[in-house]
Amino acid sequence: MKTTSSLFRPSLGIPLLLLLALLAVPPVAAALGAQFYVGFLARVLIYALAASALNLVLGYAGLIGFGHALFIGLGAYCVSLSSLAGLESAWPQLLLVLVSCGCIGALTGAISLRTRGIGFIMITLAFSQMGYFVFVSLKQYGGDDGMSIIATSRLGAGIDLGSVLPLFYAAWIVLAVTLLWMHRLRHAPFGMALRGSRQNLARISALGFPARRLQLIAYVLSAILCGLAGFLLANLNAYASPGLMSWQVSGELIVMVVLGGMGSVFGPLLGALAFICLEEVMKSYTEHWMLIFGPMIILIALTGRDGLMGALHWLDVRCCQRGASGHIDAPAIVANGAKQ
């Protein structure tokens, strides 16, 4: 009789295979002379990192906000402004990203978390737009035109993140570490209490957990991860713009999380890949791609309860049913290993 551990679980195996397959992109692209795909997929990895950051707040804590673009923009401007000042080393720039995004995340999060529902959405949106208009008004730094990065970040040992190949691998490593951390977090007391606050905040507080404090910590960690995504994106584009702080960017991140599957570990990766690839394909056919892309995203969100990860969970059930030679409770297997 087969055991449940011997069965292949698509919800875990397919995302892991996809993540590993991305490592083969640079050598394959070099062999085929298609370097465009290295830069394109580096962008996917960076947005998957930002979507994973939002998933910590949206998927785990159940807080819907439109303010995470603020931290992506801050991470990008930390690179451009420090480069303008003559600082080219990536390590002081990363420290600047961590401190600035952490402090501003703590400040805005402490204020925003005093509200719930539509109030939280509007306050986070207001903070993001405030950041947008602040940098638009700084004409000495390009205003709404943004500013080019004079010198991209250098990690040392001759590694320059301005080159696509080092940036690709750096983004892959950061994303892989983040996904591993998110997986461990799901089963840690902090993560379980955070997910419990999404279901019933009052009950979690009554059990003795500081629910608001846990949500604030999650918000700050999410802000820092978004800042890292902005840091990488600035090096990829060699450019920083206030447009990175606009509410449209926050909206795109929400779509990626919902499309991939809220509260899942690999959902943001699948959502970012699907969103950016669909966008690129649509753009190649028509300049009015949004008229097609928008209804398509709505249809996917309405028909797929848990996004793309929901489809993989359904495959889990099918694999369990086909691979079972005895009494195996397929729904229980999915419930125990769901949302990897």
Task: Note down, in words, how this protein is organized.
This protein has 340 residues and is mostly helical. A two-stranded antiparallel ribbon has the order 1-4. Strands 2-3 form a two-stranded antiparallel sheet. The two termini are 26 Å apart. The chain is built from 15 helices and 4 strands. A hairpin with a 2-residue loop joins strand 2 and strand 3. Helix content is 72%, strand content 3%. Helix 3 (36-60) runs parallel beside helix 7 (164-187) and helix 5 packs across helix 6. The longest helix has 27 residues, at 211-237.
Short description:
With 340 residues, the protein is mostly helical.
List the helices and strands and how they pair.
Elements: H1 10-22, H2 25-32, H3 36-60, H4 69-84, H5 90-112, H6 118-137, E1 147-148, E2 154-156, E3 159-160, H7 164-187, H8 189-199, H9 201-206, H10 211-237, E4 239-240, H11 247-260, H12 267-285, H13 289-303, H14 307-323, H15 330-337
Antiparallel strand pairs: 1-4, 2-3
- How many helices? The count is 15
Gross geometry: globular
Report the average pLDDT across residues: 87
Classification by helices and strands: mainly alpha
Q: Can you list the strand order of the major beta sheet?
A: 1-4
Distance between the termini: 26 Å
What are the secondary-structure elements, in order, as H or E? HHHHHHEEEHHHHEHHHHH
Largest sheet: 2 strands, antiparallel
Radius of gyration: 21 Å
How many strands? 4
Q: What is the helix content?
A: over 70%
Poorly predicted runs: 1-6, 326-339
- Which range does the strand content fall in? under 5%
